[in-house]
Amino acid sequence: MFDNSKPITYTVDVPDVVHAVEFSPFEWSSKLIGVGTSSRVSVGICRFQEEDREIDGLEYEHLRDFHHGIRVTALAWSPETSLAVIPKILRFCTGGSDHKLRLISSDLKNDDSVKIIDGHTDYINAVTFDPSKGDQLASVSDDHTCRVWDTDGTQRICLPLGSPGMSVCWHRDDHMKIMVAEKNGIIRFYNLLNQQPIMSLDCGHAPLLSADWCLVDSLKVGAVVGTELHLFDTSMSSRPVERRSVHSDGGCLVKWAKNNEHLVATTGTPACQVKVINAKTNQIPVSSGLQISSGLSWHYRLPIVVVGGDRKLHFWSIDNT
Fold first, then answer.
1. DSSP secondary structure, 12-77, as one string
2. pTM, entire model
């Protein structure tokens, strides 16, 4: 049905249908991957031949399953996570279908803890940690709020939104700035000190279902709005500098590659499409259809993107040009 311009590079079997998947976005824990399902979070280590010639393809090591009880709707890694310290620290946060956040910590031995953070009144669409220290996290919800929390569960900020919050991203270098994308097509950047918007972007129409802030170049923002991918350069305009049709029945997720400002991945419909677009060359190295797709994440160092499927993780290794 689709032009599978690049076939799936690697596949890993997992016990359940995947609802969320995230590589750790930090250099010191970039081998870690979290997989959220209807009742658990599975954590594993991915070692790729692209960074270790002694490995044949992909070597996946399952570390631990964490009981979750309900469906995972969002997943984010803490920068405090490290397997190189003693004791080891594994820390991540989930959004659940019961509208609660869960901050899960483990030393991968006997010390596991779960902190339930209650406050949202509707579906949680995204969560992210302050990348500098990991002592705060932000979440957005269908309840028309973006909330910032201390990791002890204290709510520090509640930003009212004009529509459901779909995505939230923290600036990698300035921990006082976050980006919040709303379903009505408005993307705002907030100063957390005064809780005021610094600037806003306007997609011009709706629904916006996902947006991402480029890690390599923080002037760039991408969003999937209706059937289109919108690319912004915030130094030039508050309107998209490029719009292109990507999914004829609507886009679902968008993520910039973490090591390449030109590679953008999207998912959408019909038939659970996965696309990778090179915005510089206009090439589409990946255009595939899956039976089920959920979640979308790029490796921190490698041009490898993962999408969750029906009891599988699908990985594509992209030519990084």
1. EE-SS--SEEEE--SGGGTTEEEEE-SSEEEEEEEEETTT-TTS-SEEEEEEEEEE-SS-EEEEEE
2. 0.95
